[in-house]
């Protein structure tokens, strides 16, 4: 849903993690927060550099059978893309995944728990300290043609924006991409949110639709894809088609620093309430987030960074430098809703670092409520194909168990 390589952040990362208190109870039978057996490097750029140790056996995890079947289905759908990708985390090779993917193609329904016990082992990345947020698929009032009352343009990708893979210029910058435009023979930053809304890209970007409400559209941009509910009742789905390359800023954190919000108010719902109560200041506040997302029409369900549909309550966004895309993950948070088995099928601009996950909750009011308030801490494990840790140990990349 953060369609393709969605480069925007979750609704919950609008706020400081400490400002949305833990809710629910610790899920039963979850592993305790990990005690690191080797130092982790918080500045590490990959899972291998962060430190990798063996976690508990998959059999010791209290996996819900129904959830296991859903995650297995999502894993199965990811395998074609997973087997073609280069794992930037340094954890796995294509050969590692082949046995599990081959078995998944014909694994019987109702036996998902057995599948994960048979083909996977768990790994702790760094200290295994989890921070999880949430995202969802919003539906807002919009239209694909100009109409009275719909005056917030929804832009497609500009024709003057270029991207540069810095890894082609310096090996230590592998995986980093910048976006900008060419001006007087030099690559310069692309216009930010305020400049775009002021007309800086007029004539360079197609307008593919119009939203009725600028605040609703702002939050749809944060999600990266969503639905336009047209005046005639029909629904058009739009998804991520690019981003201006400017940094993402969570406005909740900024609003807290300015005293606009008090601790505990920086959920999505709290931020929206403040913006609507202060319409004369809303634009200036939203412009603190210089990132701007461009869209395209979607004819499919929401797609993640692997190019396959993401599933509510099953898919998470992760940082591929620390979690192989397509890998199952086990979350043991202080929010019971987010506990259990998930599969990494997406990415996000604010989803950076080890054990940082963004849980996808689907569409609808319940999904919006949960995602908007999700801020969970605890422990996390990545599920790797059985034998991966032994191979890494033999290669000297991690301590041998």
How would you characterize the overall build of this protein?
It holds the Pfam family 3D. It comes from Sphingomonas chungangi. This is peptidoglycan lytic exotransglycosylase. Keywords: Cell wall biogenesis/degradation, Lyase, Signal. By secondary structure, the chain is of the alpha+beta class. The protein has helices spanning 47-50, 65-82, 94-104, 112-119, 193-197, 214-223, 251-257, 268-277, 279-286, 365-373, 388-394; strands at residues 52-54, 120-125, 129-137, 139-143, 152-155, 162-165, 177-183, 186-189, 207-211, 225-229, 235-243, 293-298, 315-318, 328-333, 340-346, 356-363, 375-385. The strands form three sheets. A six-stranded mixed β-barrel has the order 3-16-13-15-14-17. A six-stranded mixed β-sheet has the order 5-9-4-10-11-12. The chain has a three-stranded antiparallel β-sheet with strand order 6-7-8, with no helix packed on it.
Total count of domains? 2
Mean model confidence by pLDDT: 89
Termini separation (Å)?
38 Å
How does the overall form come out from the CA principal axes?
A: globular
Overall strand count: 17
Helix-strand topology string: HEHHHEEEEEEEHEHEEHHHEEEEEHEH
Strand content: 25-35%
The CATH superfamily of the largest domain appears as: RlpA-like domain
Number of helices: 11
Q: What fraction, in percent, of the residue positions are helical?
A: 10-25%
Largest sheet: 6 strands, mixed, barrel
CATH class of the largest domain: Mainly Beta
Q: Which structural class best describes the helix and strand composition?
A: alpha+beta
**Side-by-side strand order of the widest sheet:** 3-16-13-15-14-17
Could you name the CATH topology of the largest domain? Barwin-like endoglucanases
CATH architecture of the largest domain: Beta Barrel
Which regions have little confidence, pLDDT < 50, spanning 5+ residues? 1-40
| Alpha-carbon Rg, integer | 21 Å
């Amino acid at each position: 849903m953060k369609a393709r390589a969605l480069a925007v952040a979750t609704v919950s990362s609008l706020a400081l993690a400490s400002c949305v208190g833990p809710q629910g109870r610790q899920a039963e039978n979850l592993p305790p927060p990990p005690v690191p057996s080797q130092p982790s490097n918080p500045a590490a750029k990959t899972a291998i550099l962060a430190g990798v140790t063996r976690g508990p056996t998959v059999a010791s995890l209290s996996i819900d059978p129904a959830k296991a079947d859903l995650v297995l289905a999502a894993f199965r759908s990811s395998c074609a893309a997973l087997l073609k990708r280069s794992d930037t985390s340094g954890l796995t090779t294509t050969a590692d995944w082949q046995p599990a993917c081959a078995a998944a193609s014909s694994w019987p329904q109702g036996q998902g728990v057995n599948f994960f016990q048979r083909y996977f082992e768990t790994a702790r990345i760094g200290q295994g300290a989890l921070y999880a947020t949430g995202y969802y698929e919003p539906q807002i009032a919009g239209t694909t043609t100009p109409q009275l009352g719909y005056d917030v343009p929804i832009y497609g990708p500009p024709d003057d924006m270029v991207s540069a893979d810095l890894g082609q210029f310096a090996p230590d910058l592998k995986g980093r991409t910048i976006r900008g435009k060419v001006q007087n023979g030099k690559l310069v930053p692309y216009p930010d949110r305020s400049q775009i809304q002021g007309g800086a890209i007029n004539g360079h970007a197609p307008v593919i639709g119009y939203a009725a409400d600028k605040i609703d559209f702002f939050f749809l941009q944060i999600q990266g894809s969503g639905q336009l509910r047209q005046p005639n009742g029909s629904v058009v789905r739009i998804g991520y088609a690019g981003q201006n390359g400017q940094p993402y800023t969570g406005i909740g954190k900024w609003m807290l620093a300015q005293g606009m919000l008090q601790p505990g108010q920086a959920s999505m719902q709290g931020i929206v309430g403040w913006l609507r109560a202060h319409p004369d200041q809303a634009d200036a506040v939203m412009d603190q987030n210089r990132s701007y997302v461009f869209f395209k029409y979607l004819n499919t369900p929401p797609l993640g960074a692997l190019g396959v549909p993401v599933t509510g309550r099953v898919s998470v966004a992760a940082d591929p430098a620390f979690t192989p895309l397509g890998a199952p993950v086990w979350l043991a948070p202080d929010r019971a809703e987010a506990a259990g088995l998930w599969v990494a099928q997406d990415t996000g601009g604010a989803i950076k670092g080890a054990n940082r996950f963004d849980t996808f909750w689907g569409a609808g009011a319940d999904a919006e409520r949960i995602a908007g308030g999700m801020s969970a801490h605890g422990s996390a494990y990545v599920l790797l194909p059985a034998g991966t840790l032994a191979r890494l140990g033999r290669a000297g990349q991690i301590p041998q168990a």
